[in-house]
Each structure stands twice: as C-alpha cells, then as structure tokens.
Amino acid sequence: MTTTTELTDTTTDGRQHSRRSFLRTSLAASMATVGASMAGSAFAQMTKTEGASPLTAEGSPRRTVIIDCDPGQDDAVAILMALGASDQIDLKALTVVGGNVPLSLTERNARIVRDWADKTKTLPVYAGCPKPLMRELVTVANVMGRSGLEGAPLHDPRAPLAPQHAVTYLIDTLRAAAPGSITLVAIGPLTNIATALTAAPEGAKAIREIVLMGGAWFERGNYTPAAEFNIFVDPEAASIVLGAGVPVTIVPRDVSLKTLITPQRVAPFHALKNRCGPIVGDIFNAALAYQKRRRGVDEAPMYDPCTIGYLIDPTMYGGRRVNVAVETTGQLTLGETVVDWNGRTKRPVNALWLTDIDADRFYATLLERIARLP
Predict the structure, then answer these.
(1) Residue 258 burial by CB count (10 A; 0-12/13-18/19+): exposed, middle or buried?
(2) Roughly how many angstroms between the first and final C-alpha of the chain, as a whole number?
(3) Which parts of the chain register pLDDT below 50?
(4) Within 10 A of 323 (CB to CB), how many other CB atoms are there?
(5) How far apart are CA 99 and CA 106, in angstroms?
(6) Nearest-angstrom CA–CA distance, 262 and 287
(7) Any idea which fold 58-372 has?
C-alpha cells in the first residue's frame, strides 16, 4: 500500500520543510522538560511525533476480547497473535464483516485461521453484515488475493459458523456483561459494531475499550489520498463508533508505516518449527510480493496485528488523546479521519490516537506469541 507523497511548506526565508519532517521533529525540547535522564531511554528512541507521549502499562488483568474482523491477510496474523497471547487475552469469539473481500470469504477465512491454531471447537465465528450501512461494499481482492488469504495454504473449514448473526451476538454479549469488562478489537469496517451500538446503546456500558485499526492523519490514506480503507468502506459506521461515548484507541496508518514488514523480519517466522510460524511467514511474503509488483520496494505496512501488540504491551506505543471526526460527505475526502492534534476545534477528546511504535519490540513480541501456537 502506498506511502504518502511528501508535502512541503515554504518558510519566510525561502527554506523548504517537508510536512512529515515538521510533524516528526525530535524530542530534544520536550526531553529538557522531563529530565536529561530520559535522553537514552526507549521513549527517546521510539517516539518521534511532536506532541505524542509514551503509553504506560495498566497492570490490569487478562482482557476479555472479541475480535471484529474481515480476514484478510493481516487479520489472520492478528487473530493468531491474539491466540498466542492467551495469558493476556481471553478471546471469546470472532465476529466477521464484509471488507477486504466479501462476507462469504471473510467468514470462511476466519474459520480457516482458527483451524490453523487448533481452535476449531473452542472459538466461535459469527458472520455479520455483508455491506456497509449506507453504501455498496468495496473490496481489495487485488491486494489480498481472490481468497483474501493470498500466500497461505487454504483448506475447507473444519466446522460451521455459529448460528447467531454477529450483531445479535454482540448485542446479547454486551447486555449480559459486567460494566467495563469487554474489549472489542475492530480490524475491519466498523459496520457490525456500529449496528450493535445503534440497536442497543445500553450495551456500551460493558465496553472497556474499542481498539481499532483504521484511519490516517500524518501518513494520509491508502485507499484514497485522504482515506484509509477500513474507514472509507463504512465512514458512517466509523462516525457512529467514535460518537458512542466509549473509550476508543485508534491504531492508524501512522503506526503501520513505522512497523514495516521486511525480508529480514520475515525470516524468523519461517524458521519456527510449528505450523503457524511458516504460515505467517508466507502471508508476509505475499504482502511483500504485492508491494514489489506495485511499487518496486522490499517492504510492506504492518496493519491489524498492531492492535494486538497494543493489548499485549502498550508501552511499545506513543500517542495522544484527541478529537477524531470522520468525513462522511466530502467529494474528495470521504472517509478521512480528521484528527484535531492541537485542539483547534475545541471538540471534546474522543480517542487515543497512536502515532509511534517500537518496531523491533513489536516484531519480537509477535514472533514469541506465534511460536506458542501449534
């Protein structure tokens, strides 16, 4: 997927400064305010975006998690990473939406992924909304392959879907759960979650946090110049979720492009002696092959698994609490996530927007969790 085009501003003395370099100035000034002792810390090495702060560990117990997804190569790796982190993530179900490819394929792929991890009988998969709230579905089969899992060895799923509709499952589960007990990880279009919160807003009280992969600000879009794919597919749903009054953490392209897949980072997965390690390596190689064909580069963005990395170890990340709005009517900017980084609009904060990540720690964490799987 494409990186943003460098934009420039001209200062009064005629010097050119790129928008990216301006927004990612070093922390020299802020380090002076927090003490010179931090200058050699992981924070100094990891956090680059001006105005971002490092996250801290909550020290909280194991999370109860539902992953809402549209598998998708990167969704598959995120699901496997969550299953490999069972000491911290109690994954209750996968709810599936149309997105990367149509629902008939995303729900099938979700069932295949659980088979890879030997969770066929213990991890239910619920099929949800086949299309966005107000629009026709757009997909990226050209990126993910016709199946959505290009590069991976596929088989017929070993068990059927759970009988409930995904939205019904979400409504029933949230209504029955204790306040603040459920974490929703959203790594596809937000149609299922928005529909559930609209039909049964009382369920919002059960949500501890929604962690979503979507949006772009400093790095701009990957589907249009302004919009990232997950938000573009169903911008109305994204707007509903951001307005629901629940804690939201957004893992955008700003993070994905700082966590690049490279051949050197793929090799350790192929070296694992289990089943899932080489599968993850094959998926990454397919992503690299697409970028090589399209852009002639040997690197690819890391998208959905970054949400799971945040659940496992938030101290790998930096970000800022801001207001985020979604453009739902713009002719050129439909699906844009408008991030009020400096509080210019005075709109209330509604999300934690992540910008920075320690990529080496992330890949070490991912490898360790995948190594735990069959």
Answers:
(1) buried
(2) 31
(3) 1-44
(4) 19
(5) 8
(6) 10
(7) Inosine-uridine Nucleoside N-ribohydrolase; Chain A (3.90.245)
Residue range 212-231, pLDDT digits in tens: 999 999 998 999 999 999 99
CA distances in angstroms from 227 to 80, 137, 219, 337, 354, listed in the order given = 27, 15, 10, 7, 17
Q: What is the pTM of this model?
A: 0.87
Inter-residue contact 117 to 374 (CB < 8 Å): yes
Return d(Cα 338, Cα 305) in angstroms, integer: 23
Residues 245, 204 contacting (CB under 8 angstroms): yes
DSSP 8-class letter at 339: E
Number of C-beta neighbours around residue 41 at 10 A:
14
- pLDDT for residue 269: 98
Structure tokens at 319: 């970000």
Q: Give per-residue pLDDT as tens, 101-150.
A: 999 999 999 999 999 999 999 999 999 999 999 999 999 988 988 899 99
Burial of 178 (0-12, 13-18, 19+ CB in 10 A): exposed
Residue 243 to residue 120: CA distance in whole angstroms: 35
Q: What does the H/E/C string look like for 94-105?
A: EEECCCCCCHHH
Chain centre distance of CA 322: 18
In whole angstroms, give the CA distance from residue 370 to residue 253.
Answer: 23
In whole angstroms, give the CA distance from residue 158 to residue 166: 20
